[in-house]
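Let's practice the habit of predicting before peeking. Look at the sequence and jot down your guess about where helices and strands might fall. Then scroll down.
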Amino acid sequence: MPKTEFNLTGNREIPIFFGVDDGYCPFLAVTIQSLLDNSSPEYTYSIKVLHMDISSENKKKIAKYEQENASIEFVDLNYYIEKIKDKLYTRDYYSKTTYFRLFIPNLYPQYDKALYLDSDIVVLDDIAKLFATDMGDNLVAAAPDDVIQFNPVFQTYVEKVVGVADYRRYFNAGVLLMNLHQLRKFKFQEKFLYLLDKIKFSVAQDQDYLNRLCKGRVTFLERTWNRMPIEDPKIKPEEVRLVHYNLEFKPWHFEDILYKEFFWMYAQETEYFEQIQEIRESYTAEDRFRDAQNHEKLRKLAKRESDCVGDDRKYRR
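Done guessing? Here is the structure:
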């Protein structure tokens, strides 16, 4: 993967979006803590929390992270997705908030560029460097999905079902730099809503829609900007700029998670620390077994959907 060039001149405001429900606020706090600990006074970090049901107590706790170079706004999207929320398919522990990133271009016409981040990450470098990535007229910038890169069943799924020509070009949408200007010009939201009526992606949901719609117009980031806790000798720990504890790789559920030290380092700085510890201590063996079963069910789902599609991949190579 070629090195990404960064240009830190230009716009000093960095819009950063999250989509969370009430139960994920403790982990959102860890993400924001890490982001601001590594921020630069040269930039303004405008944080928008897209939600449907965040309590006033959690809003107060998260709002405390506002500082001279960082603002926090809570945006209730119940009104916006009222007509389509029943169509937004979810599974396992996911909530409808995972789809919120798809509406950002139309919700915020004042911005030409924005970052979307999942709330199960820690940031280890200034996120302004990621924001400064030159995308040209591509729709998004993102890193290849590590889970896909090491699993043949998912590789087949993204090529046959999602329609990405090469699984190595299937990106993870948990760290997403969005070219909002080009996405609006492309009529992304209109096309997503059309696809939503025609195709149901059950495996990676909104991420599959993003890959389907944006293929061919993606700037690929170095995987150090979206490093998942999967062993890979090609990436040195000191090179990691952002850790993404996606799927079942949660240090607040399991002890043996790669890069868990970064999560706990920032978690200790938040007022949610004791609550997160309680979550870890109350997570039972039965819960862990269910997590393992969910991953296996997901793998079987991907295989079943792949088996229902003809295979013309030999003509692409």
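How did you do? Confidence is low (pLDDT under 50) at residues 1-9.
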